[in-house]
Design a protein that fits this description.
- The strands form two sheets. A seven-stranded mixed β-sheet has the order 9-8-7-6-10-11-12, sandwiched between helices.
- The chain folds into three domains: 3-49, no CATH class; 56-191, Leucine Dehydrogenase, chain A, domain 1 (Rossmann fold); 209-364, NAD(P)-binding Rossmann-like Domain (Rossmann fold, 3-Layer(aba) Sandwich).
- It is an alpha/beta fold.
- It contains 17 helices and twelve strands.
- The structure holds NADPH dihydro-nicotinamide-adenine-dinucleotide phosphate (NDP) and 2-oxoglutaric acid.
- The site of NADPH dihydro-nicotinamide-adenine-dinucleotide phosphate has 23 residues, from helix 10.
- NADPH dihydro-nicotinamide-adenine-dinucleotide phosphate (NDP) binds at residues 95, 168-171, 212, 240-245, 264-266, 322-324, 347-349, 374, 377.
- Pfam families: ELFV_dehydrog, ELFV_dehydrog_N.
- InterPro entries: Aminoacid_DH-like_N_sf, Glu/Leu/Phe/Val/Trp_DH, Glu/Leu/Phe/Val/Trp_DH_C, Glu/Leu/Phe/Val/Trp_DH_dimer, Glu/Leu/Phe/Val_DH_AS, Glu_DH, Glu_Leu_Phe_Val_DH, NAD(P)-bd_dom_sf.
Length: 449
């Protein structure tokens, strides 16, 4: 074992001892630490200066109480979080997640990944993430509004256009961002750049809603182009049917792919004629219903209740996991391989377990890690910040073109970095090493802070 490997193992073991129950966080750290050694061998200064140990500890972790009243007049309370992980490259930037599973481990893994993702965009944004264990399902508009207002009463103390700029994630879309923005404005005055993913009426960016899903498909397109292939007639399955999934399906279909399935937390749908996206949007975006409603208008489709879409046995080329973390287990990865999948590109954050990743690697499946392939959302958030600072809106075409170029750059950076350090293509290692390099350089030159 090299000295550097020993150093990395020691750091990881110390975290395991300190946070034995934070399994998602430890998983994200393990994935990163497992790939960074070749970079450190050639750049030992970062080991000498112990940058890794500094990087692993969040600059700040805020946990707070969110009291709110439901429609029956009952008092309720949830826990809120904001993890301000690293500001070497700019203000903390990352979404807010509302989901009952939210806890410190999930917040820390998301914020940790966000550091490298944001670095890969080459835009001036540091890494952060936040959210609450509040479950928005089944809540009225009034309940959502009161909850968001109460959350912002506390969060507003810690954010601002030049300090920390939250956005959406699972359970947080335009409606929630609107309520959060309104409350921030009431307390601090109008500051358009304090949140991104805003509705267009008050300085949201065109194409931000589409950005993560479109960016994911652009990433896959650039990867396929490298192999003299295109998306035309490729068979695709997508997990989830939320923001990222919907716009990934839209762009994939526009580029000629056939998308046969999508899902939500109640099960998955396979449509032999291809997914009717307008119907999915009506069900999920407009009516906030369950995905099985799809069958009422598409009788040839099948719904698999309570099942994970990666259990499906159907031939396809490309898997786009766009739901949540750890949705692809090793057992499911084996099914995917049997189905003939060639590319797995992550729209979600860390949807593949480390063991599932091994299965994909053993079978030479091309794997695009979320911190690279889903970076389009946060990249356009940074473009929204630029538009807000300029006080000038850009056209959809301009934002979309920038997004496509950013995804191309990220793909090529990951590819070329892994070729340089490993003499083979490994997008996970490439993403981690290239993402780390910029952050580490900035940390070193900013001194011990
Ligand atoms: N929004 C963005 O810009 C970005 C999002 N991401 C990541 O993409 C993923 C999806 O986010 P987004 O589309 O914004 O969120 P949404 O809330 O819009 O949609 C989430 C989708 O995933 C499904 N889902 C959530 N949890 C589970 C679960 N435990 N099991 C099965 N299905 C589940 C939801 O089903 P149901 O409706 O039943 O809850 C829904 O279809 C997340 O991992 C997020 O971190 C990454 C980069 C940027
Ligand atoms: O747009 C943003 O700031 C955050 C997007 C996000 O949360 C993510 O990339 O996971």
């Amino acid at each position: 074992m090299t000295e550097i490997k020993q150093y990395l193992d020691n750091l990881e073991n110390a975290l395991k001892e300190k946070y034995p129950d934070q399994k998602e966080y430890l998983q994200a750290v393990a994935e990163f630490m497992g790939t960074i050694e070749p970079f450190l061998m050639k750049n030992p200064i970062y080991v000498e200066k112990n940058i890794l140990e500094l990087l692993l500890i969040p600059e700040r972790l805020i946990e707070f109480r969110i009291p709110w009243m439901n429609d029956r007049g009952e008092w309720k309370v949830n826990t809120g979080y904001r993890v301000q992980y690293n500001s070497a490259l700019g203000p903390y930037k990352g979404g807010m997640r509302f989901h009952p599973t939210v806890n410190q481990s999930i917040m820390k893994f998301l914020a940790f990944e966000q550091i490298f993702k944001n670095s890969l965009t080459s835009l001036p944004i540091g890494g952060g993430k936040g959210g609450s264990d509040f479950d928005p399902k089944g809540k009225s508009d009034g309940e959502i509004m009161r909850f968001c207002q109460s959350l912002m009463q506390e969060l507003q103390k810690y954010i601002g256009p030049n300090t920390d700029v939250p956005a959406g994630d699972i359970g947080v879309g335009g409606r929630e961002i609107g309520y959060l923005f309104g409350e921030y404005k009431r307390l601090n005055g109008y500051q358009s750049g304090v949140l991104t993913g805003k509705p267009l009426a008050y300085w949201g960016s065109l194409a931000r809603t589409e950005a993560t899903g479109y960016g994911l498909v652009y990433f896959v397109q650039h990867l396929l182009n490298d192999q003299k292939e295109t998306l035309k007639d490729k068979k695709v399955l997508v997990s989830g049917s939320g923001n990222v999934a919907i716009y990934a399906i839209q762009k994939a279909q526009e580029l000629g792919a056939k998308v046969y399935g999508c899902s939500d937390s109640s099960g998955y749908v396979i449509d032999p004629d291809g997914i009717d996206l307008e119907l999915v949007r009506d069900i999920k975006e407009v009516n906030r219903e369950r995905i099985n409603v799809y069958l009422t208008q598409r009788p040839k489709a099948k719904f698999y209740e309570g099942k994970n879409i990666w259990e499906a046995t159907i031939a396809y080329d490309i898997a786009l996991p766009c739901a949540t973390q750890n949705e692809i287990t090793p057992e499911l990865a084996k099914i995917m391989v049997k189905n003939g999948v060639k590319v797995v590109a992550e729209g979600a954050n860390m949807p593949t377990t480390l063991e599932a990743l091994e299965v994909l690697n053993d079978n030479q499946i091309i794997y695009c890690p979320g911190k690279a392939s889903n970076a389009g959302g946060v990249a356009v958030s940074a473009l929204e910040m630029a538009q807000n600072a300029q006080r000038l809106p850009w056209t959809f075409e301009k934002v979309d073109q920038e997004l496509n170029q950013i995804m191309k750059n990220i793909y090529e950076t990951c590819r070329d970095t892994s070729l340089a350090y490993l003499s083979k293509e490994d997008l996970v290692a490439g993403a981690n090493m290239a993402g780390f390099e910029k952050v580490a350089k900035a940390m070193l030159s900013q001194g011990l802070v």
